[in-house]
Amino acid sequence: MKTENYVSLTTWVYRMALDMIRDNNFDEQNKSYLMGVLDRASHRNFTSGFMFLDDKKELEDNDNVGYIKNYIFAGTVSGIDTLHDEPVIAVRNQFSKGQILDIQQPGKHPEEILIDEMFLEYGTEQPISIANPNDRVVIKGLKGIDHFSILRIKDIK
Q1: pTM score of the predicted model
Q2: Are 129 and 88 in contact (CB under 8 A)?
């Protein structure tokens, strides 16, 4: 019942953690990095869980059981626009020109790009400033990212 954003991000983090363990470099710095990446999915408070906690009070007294949402799932790459020769984004949640797009590609570290120019797929050459849910948009500067990449926008509440 989780979104492709959540599933892709958590499996990516687990894969990276397992690779780091295998390569004997799963240290506090890498663990902190992976936890930061994992924070990009909507989630409840993180705990050490039943396996590593000596005192279960952390699990019993969890006042904040709501979801933490630091990033908004913007959409996925769903094809290539022949007019602009750029990936087509199937938009899931609204985002705007000027926001920072967080890109999660299969097997690669996340990267960020500023949304400077975007167009509707099969639209005119007229740029748009807002992408709405169910739109299919082209964002200039994404050429070469992998099909099925997940895109997020940092929530600025």
Answers
A1: 0.73
A2: no
